[in-house]
Structure formats: structure tokens, C-alpha cells
Amino acid sequence: QVIRKYMSGGMCGYDREGSPIWYEIIGPLDAKGLLFSASKQDLLKNKFRDCEVLQHECEKQSQKLGKKIEMVLMVYDCEGLGLKHLWKPAVETYGELLSMFEENFPESLKRLFIVKAPKIFPVAYNLVKHFLSEDTRKKVVVLGSNWKEVLQKYIDPEQIPVEYGGTLTDPDGNPKCPSKV
Fold it and tell me: Which SMART domains does the annotation name (predicted)?
């Protein structure tokens, strides 16, 4: 429960080809608090479950669209990324998470867009990129100030939360779509 409450992110919409989109919101994440409140194993299990949800969503989309959907588009919102996120045990846990993703779900990442990357982002990326295969690294795209337009090239605005330059809101009108992301 602690993990569900404090880990942000979720599936929200589909790209123009029908692949599910997963958002990760990095800024508000309290890595230290999370690792003191839940075991590393529980965190990894939780993320593994998220990956299974995405895999199941790909299967549903494949049936719905009548074509093979096997990959996921990811959007990492790095606004607020700071030194607190670079705490060594958190970086190590994140590295394990990336390794688990690579081992269990190879070739399931279509593209990973990094948006709102602060100046510290290259430092953070350098700490974790060695956990990623060369193929995966090629799929990581750090977007500049025109990130909303770039997202709209790949995702219909109706599938993007207002917070990210689209027209999608929660049923209560919230532009951040917290019920999904």
C-alpha cells in the first residue's frame, strides 16, 4: 500500500500506432522514504506487476486492433529531479529495476521520452545508463523545450493528459489525470 501511494506513474492512453503509454513522474518521488517504508523486493515486485499489466494491455490492444502490439511508449517527467534522487541505495535499486525490466521484458520498449529534464539529468542518467543495453539506450530520447509538440507527433492529443500538452482530463476535470498517472 505504501508503494502504491508513493510511487507515481501509470498507464494513460495509446500512441498513434496503438501501443500503451506509461508515464513516470520522478520529481515528487521520495526514494529514501520509500526504501525505508518498503523492502527493495516489494518495490521490484510492484514494478514487475506494472510490466505485466502493460504486457496484458499489449495483448488486449493486439486483439482489439487486429495487429501485433508488443511495445510500450514511456514518458518520464523529470521535473523536480534533484540530488535527493541520487541517493546511492535508490540509484542501486533503480538499476536493479532496469536490469529486471531488460531481462524479463526484452524488446518491449518502443521509445522512452524524457521531458522537463533539469540540468542535473545528465548526471542522473550517467549513474544508471550502464544498467541498460545498447539497444535500450538508443530508444531514450531527451526532449527539449518543444517536448509537447514532439509528443503530439507520436500520440494523439486526446490520448495525452492536459498537463503534457494534450486534451485528456480525469473524469473530474483534473488536467494531471491522477487516476491514471
Answer: SEC14 (SM00516)
Domains of the chain: 2-164 (3.40.525.10)
* Predicted confidence (pLDDT) per residue in 146-162, tens digit: 999 999 999 999 999 99
Please check whether residue 51 is in contact with residue 11, taking contact to mean a CB–CB distance below 8 angstroms. Answer: no
C-alpha cell at position 46: 510492484
Cβ neighbourhood burial of 113 (10 Å; 0-12, 13-18, 19+): buried
Is the pTM for the entire model greater than 0.85? Answer: yes
Burial of 147 from C-beta contacts in 10 A (0-12 / 13-18 / 19+): buried
Cα 140 to Cα 131: distance, rounded to the nearest angstrom: 13
